[in-house]
Design goal:
heterodimer; A: 72% helix; B: 165 residues; mainly alpha; 7 helices; rod-shaped
């Protein structure tokens, strides 16, 4: 079972093989969990979404169409849809600000380079700062940064997941990086 | 060709595109100082993001998922075994009629032999129904009792299947 491809695992899941689901879970649980965790910055929601994603995979395995994309894309599409649903509930409303407006007035819009990335990487506080900065991004910007940078999906695949043109996604990515950069400059 | 469009820098950083496209970009960066600086800036920004480490979800999540799959599997297995064990509906009805008729017949014989039947027969009740009639009434009452007794189980099973579907 461990040597099966993702598509073969989906076929086994379709035959109600829970071992295949466990193997698929082993492959994608970290990705899905950390994607949702960074998206929501809430561990409880991330675990709920992770569970719901794999339960849906179990019940909806027959709806997977290999021609439409990879299993990885399909799994992330399911988790993104569940996350968006969760976040659209009033109890988890989005809270984000346009950093450009804040920092252009404080810093005249200038962006300075990171001086020593290796030192910065070792700083645990930086992790929290980055997490906080990502959390504050607009959801559409956040999606593309998380899926692209942290989960190594191709822009073509992210376009399938989010139903957005590749050009728009790249523009969003640049915008997100600019916002993160500005925020991190101020915090570091 | 590439100046003024930052998208190609992303393609180079993430290695997306065919070799000739990527080598074209590299050649351009060697000639264009502005684009080279932009790429260096992008690299630094994205390197900082790598500070975030992946976290592990709780092991309860997988247990809950497998619990859910086990429930659905047990329902499916029950349905399969029910299908294989039970005869088709027409045969079920025929077998049911034969079974009920036999029970009525046996009870009516027993009743006719018993001293209680002799007492019942002497009243208007026995006269109007006869032994077969009384036996049928007993079977009907017993059947109603059993149906009512198992109705909560039937109700729960129905809802469980409905939720599964």
């Amino acid at each position: 079972m461990q040597n099966c491809t993702d598509k073969e695992l989906i076929e086994h899941i379709n035959d109600r093989n829970s071992k295949a689901l466990s193997v698929l879970y082993e492959r994608y649980n970290l990705g899905v969990f950390n994607f949702v965790l960074r998206y929501t910055n809430n561990r409880e929601i991330a675990e709920e979404v992770l569970q719901e994603t794999f339960v849906r995979i179990w019940y909806a395995s027959h709806t997977y169409v290999p021609e439409k994309g990879s299993v990885k894309t399909w799994v992330f599409t399911i988790s993104l849809n569940i996350t968006r649903n969760e976040m659209s509930l009033k109890r988890y409303s989005y809270q984000y600000v346009e950093y450009e407006e804040i920092f252009e007035s404080e810093n005249n819009g200038e962006i300075s380079d990171f001086s020593n990335p290796i030192d910065i990487l070792e700083n645990i506080e930086l992790q929290d700062t980055i997490k906080y900065a990502i959390e504050k991004l607009d959801p559409f910007l956040k999606e593309v940064v998380l899926l692209k940078h942290f989960h190594n999906l191709k822009f073509r695949e992210i376009a399938e997941i989010t139903s957005t043109p590749e050009g728009t996604l790249k523009a969003r990515f640049h915008k997100a990086i600019n916002q993160l950069e500005k925020y991190l400059k101020k915090e570091i | 060709m590439y100046c003024g469009n930052k998208n190609y820098l992303l393609d180079l950083y993430y290695n997306e595109g065919n070799n000739s496209y990527l080598s074209d970009i590299k050649n351009h960066l060697e000639k264009c100082e502005n684009c080279k600086n932009e790429f260096a800036k992008l690299q630094k920004s994205l390197t900082v993001l790598n500070a975030i480490k992946f976290e592990q979800p709780s092991s309860i999540v997988l247990k809950n998922i497998l619990k859910e799959t086990a429930i659905s599997n047990s329902i499916v297995n029950n349905e399969v075994s029910n299908e294989s064990n039970f005869l088709n509906p027409i045969i079920q009805i025929v077998v049911g009629i034969i079974f009920v008729s036999l029970v009525v017949y046996v009870i009516s014989i027993k009743i006719s032999l018993s001293p209680i039947w002799n007492y019942i027969k002497s009243t208007w009740f026995g006269d109007s129904f006869g032994s077969i009639g009384v036996a049928a009434l007993i079977v009907f009452l017993l059947g109603s009792f059993v149906t009512l007794a198992i109705s909560p189980i039937l109700f729960l099973t129905y809802h469980q299947r409905k939720n599964f579907n």
